[in-house]
Design a protein that fits this description.
By secondary structure, the chain is of the alpha/beta class. The protein contains seven helices and nine strands. A nine-stranded mixed beta sheet has the order 2-1-3-4-9-8-7-5-6, with helices on both faces.
């Protein structure tokens, strides 16, 4: 099996997702869109899973990031071919934008570890996610839920935290793939720019001194989601 990862900046990598893919014997291809002269094929069918990572840019920044428009078409091509897709943060916003849903600035940025509430439904039962868990967030924009998609998680500051569409497309606003190394690099690259004195923005110390259980629980969430998507691929 082969997984393809679209990476937008050096400091938002696949994190724990890379460990899961290696443990499950995936061939991994990482397309680093921020590098010069990187091109996306118009269509690409020789993959079993597409993962679209986060980044500090907006889905609306097509003039500044000239690859964004082509990336959106590339993601849509894979969705149309029933390739399972997982979008995280910017990745989820790109999926919503592809389907003409609004991606807008949030009233309050969420930066740090905060609780997520999973909406109980047939979808959440299929995904076998915990009813509530503490996860890592770093975003200043939010997505509307695509038509025919179902919302399945929310937070107090941002009610749209996760959706599922067509059974094999999942968008997450939060970062269950996070590792301590990733957090430190994100702080180094983004914290000074994104910081504001808000209850939804934690201090650096708060973000890097959490129990190991936080990471373990989030990595179990990724385990569950990627296992589900892999099984969906076999069903098509």
């Amino acid at each position: 099996m082969k997984a393809q990862i679209l990476q937008h900046v050096p400091f938002e990598t696949g994190g724990y997702i890379l460990d899961w893919l290696k443990n499950n014997k995936f061939i991994i291809e990482i397309i680093k869109l921020y590098q010069p002269n990187i091109s996306l094929p118009e269509e690409y069918y020789d993959i079993d899973l597409l993962i679209v990572m986060g980044g500090p840019m907006s889905v609306h920044d097509e003039d500044k990031y000239t690859w964004l428009k082509k990336e959106k078409q590339f993601i849509k091509n894979q969705i149309d071919k029933n390739i399972p897709v997982l979008g995280i943060c910017l990745g989820a916003q790109l999926i919503a934008n592809i389907y003409n849903k609004q991606v807008s600035i949030t009233k309050q940025k969420e930066i740090g570890w905060f609780p997520i509430q999973v909406i109980q439904s047939n979808i959440s039962q299929s995904l076998q996610l915990p009813e509530q868990f503490i996860t890592f967030l770093w975003h200043g924009e939010q997505f509307e839920i695509p038509t025919h998609a179902k919302l399945f998680a929310s937070s107090q500051a941002c009610p749209h935290q996760a959706f599922i569409m067509k059974k094999n497309i999942i968008g997450l606003q939060f970062h269950p793939e996070i590792t301590l190394t990733m957090i430190k690099i994100m702080i180094e690259n983004c914290y000074k720019h994104d910081y504001a004195d808000l209850p939804t923005i934690q201090s650096i110390q708060q973000m890097i001194t959490v129990p190991d259980e936080y990471y373990k629980q989030n990595h179990l969430v990724i385990d569950t989601i990627l296992t589900y998507l892999t099984n969906q691929n076999r069903n098509y």
